Amino acid sequence: MNIYSYIPSTDIATYCEKICHKFNPLEMAVIVAMSGKTIIEKHTAWKQIITEHPDMPIHQCINFDARDSLHEYLHELINYEENLIRAFYSTKAGEVCRFSLMWLGDNGLWSDGYPGAYSTVDKAWSAYREQYGDYERDLVQVKIEKVLLDSEDCVYSACMTPNGELLCLDRSMDSDKPDSLDMIFIDVPLPFKKGDLVAIDGAPHVLEWIPHWWGRYGDLVSGEIGDGSDMIFYTYSISENGNLVRDHHHALLQLEYYKVDLMGSDCFLKCISQFIKTDDKNMYIDWLINTYLMYRAEAESERLSSRYGGDGLIIC
Question: Predicted confidence band at 21 (pLDDT cuts at 50, 70, 90)?
């Protein structure tokens, strides 16, 4: 199987393939789990790992108990999810379904919940198709929940593609659920450098830190410390109100280069990038702050000009 095709980021996948990096069967299974593919596609890939690759143990992590056999675990996981799917689509007295939608807008992802209760998953899906099927271009996911009629407590929660393929499915208070592969930290080579411009939900950010640059990275990979929740990275970005923000993000394998021209106050990110990349730090913090204020003022001027049809503010 081509494991590179399961890495969500095209840039990371291309880099790993270019350097001919080989993943062991456990790493491949984790990449499939983090791929964002449909449940059926994941099951197909895990079955290929079982039949085409040797078995191996799963090491102990903070949130994943050690297992003697990866193959045995994958069989257990596939069977569990297949039974879960059957239970989700079955009809049970006292349960009703509702749906919500996740859209991709100009400022990233946003979601909307819609009123209505339906007796089956299929009827909830049909209601979505009838009301919003014409807007699929900007639609990212459809979420269907099965809730208890009297208390509205959620029993099942499923995320689907706009054409109805299951991406994820969870059952509340589920003591039978196997440990999640997402909780295993794996070593995936990355092409990025400090100060690179990267894209998150289509918006520009400056990369400030990834786990690979930490002295205890090897301990994360071995499971001695941390787990899959530590596959994070830190960036700088410009918020909607024009403030400079440092934040962390969990989708490390989705990280990609930002390939679009910067506009407005986002242009200041070039300065942040240059500052982070400069080893001798010839650019001082006062210069950085003053440059940021200039870009912010220019962006505000453009906003006022667009709104009122005038020249806005004049920056001297």
Answer: very high
